[in-house]
Design a protein that fits this description.
Number of strands: 11
Mean pLDDT: 91
Radius of gyration: 24 Å
Low-confidence stretches: none
Number of helices: 11
Order of helices and strands: HEHEHEHEEHEHEHEHEEHHEH
Helix content: 40-55%
CATH topology of the largest domain: D-Maltodextrin-Binding Protein, domain 2
Largest sheet: 6 strands, mixed
Length: 331
């Protein structure tokens, strides 16, 4: 017998189905119409930095492919955490994206005691852009001509060798910590407020070595002020021709690089995500874009969206391990 209760359940089912259909229809309409207004690309760094330069190049390319302006907004603070929290809490409609990089996406979760976003759960990885290894640098007149000589000196002189960085928890700091730990030596970390100060300290002999980007280091090397002993990536870099990876100098598997990519909030509609991924893919495969990246010392790194998602997860695990090894932590 079709009872009153059955009729209520039937009405509820119909109402629910209609509601779901309306939501689905609205989502599909949004995706088909996307984008119909300017996008925002949030940058977790100040104007003129490498991350800012990459963001503006990427924004220009995305605007061309999507047919809408892309407004680049710099949101600094807390080593990128503020910008990432903003995007993580933004509507998942594809209009607010972030130009992310190694620090906030791979390092900060382990480095900071409190962080208000999860780099995996709160974001949709979209487009990998490029990467840069760092160079192990010493002053030009330093007595060491190889990584092995530097390590041996550190073993013979505990706590005498110093290494500079642009601050606690930076890629340069953590690369130095990994060298110290894997070589079983005692070295002293000297953090500076910015990379330029650290470079000056190595050139002047106040500190002994550091890891830094080829784009900044190569002019100093060519000017006879610095010497590169090794490369932090397994792969050799066209930005630093002739420099051997640490992987080939007694540090097997040593592979620490900085990278840049585009991500959006979690739960982007699939059709919106597809449009963004396709647009980003066209940009990063462009010869002009790759040439302009290379001009600022960044090697293009083309990945599919699933490959980027797996890469992001593996980088989080790898850098988290290095942070824990170093003991570095920020309140």
């Amino acid at each position: 017998m079709f009872t009153y209760t059955h009729r209520l359940l039937a009405r509820a089912a119909i109402t629910l189905a209609c509601g779901l259909a309306a939501v689905l229809s609205a989502t599909q309409a949004l995706a088909q119409d996307y984008p119909n207004k300017p996008l925002k690309l949030i940058v977790p760094a100040g104007a003129g930095t490498s991350t800012d330069i990459v963001a503006r190049l990427m924004g220009e390319g995305l605007a061309r492919e999507l047919g809408q302006p892309v407004v680049v907004e710099n949101k600094t603070g807390a080593s990128g955490n503020i910008a990432h929290e903003l995007v993580a809490k933004s509507p998942a409609d594809g209009y607010t994206l972030i130009l992310t990089n190694t620090g906030p996406f791979s390092i900060n979760k382990a480095l900071y005691k409190k962080i208000n976003f999860d780099p995996i759960k709160d974001f949709t990885p979209l487009t990998m852009i490029g990467y840069t290894p760092t160079l192990l640098l010493v002053r030009a007149n330093a007595p060491w001509h190889s990584v092995a000589e530097l390590v041996q000196y550190a073993k013979d002189n505990p706590d005498k060798v110093t290494y500079a960085s642009a601050g606690n928890g930076t890629t340069g700091h953590l690369a130095g910590e990994l060298v110290k730990a894997t070589s079983n030596t005692k070295m002293v970390h000297v953090p500076y407020k910015e990379g330029a100060q650290a470079v000056t300290s190595v050139i002047g002999g106040q500190t002994d070595f550091m890891f830094y980007h080829p784009a900044v280091a190569m002019p100093q090397i060519q000017a006879g002020k610095l010497r590169a002993l090794g490369l932090s990536s397994v792969a050799k870099s066209p930005a630093a021709p002739g420099v051997k990876p640490l992987d080939e100098q007694g540090f097997p598997g040593f592979d620490l690089t900085g990278w840049w990519a585009v991500a959006g909030p979690a739960s982007l509609p699939p059709a919106v995500m597809q449009k963004l991924v396709q647009a980003g893919d066209k940009v990063v495969k462009s010869g002009d874009f790759q040439t302009r990246l290379a001009a600022v010392g960044i090697d293009p790194l083309v990945m599919t969206q699933p490959e980027f998602a797996r890469f992001a997860a593996s980088e989080l695990e790898k850098w988290g391990g290095v942070v824990r090894l170093s003991g570095a932590q920020v309140d």
